[in-house]
Amino acid sequence: MHLGIEEKVTVGTPDTVVDSTAVGGERSVIFEDDGTTGYFYAVRPGAELEILDALHVYDVANVSDRHIPVKVQLVWDETWNAAVLLINGYGHALYDFQRSAGFCRNAFSAARNGQTLKRELTDELIEQYFSA
After folding, report:
1. Which residues contact 98 (CB under 8 A, 6 or more apart)?
2. What pLDDT is stored for residue 111 in this prediction?
3. Measured between alpha carbons, how far is 80 from 5 in angstroms, rounded to an integer?
4. What residue spans define the domains of the chain?
5. Which residues lie across from 101 on neighbouring strands?
6. According to DSSP H, which parts of the chain are helical?
7. Top-confidence residue, 113 or 58
8. Residue 110: pLDDT above 70?
9. Percentage of the residues of the chain whose pLDDT score is greater than 90
10. Which residue in 98, 86, 94, 70 sits closest to 3, CA to CA?
């Protein structure tokens, strides 16, 4: 595993952006909290940022302890082909660039690229990508 970045953030703080780019610069992931929702994006950097997938993480109104800062980590697998969003060590979203497949706990929103794999993120799926 490769830790792309780790930051403390407070849920519901508008304009919160945490991002990490894989070695080689061909793929990136972004966690964004706009003050209303939290999303995890898989993107292709370039002159114009291409969003490959957008995965819902939370609605701020539903986070009861949002006033307590959390640790956000963007972690890459060994091959830099998949990244997971961890909040306080818990996996909330994952994107596999090689398979063009995104996963999150509530399986929202619909895939942008015709993904046929089930979108729900499970602990077992995270282990498939990130077990030692």
Report:
1. 79, 81, 82
2. 65
3. 14
4. 2-130
5. 96
6. 123-130
7. 58
8. no
9. 78
10. 86
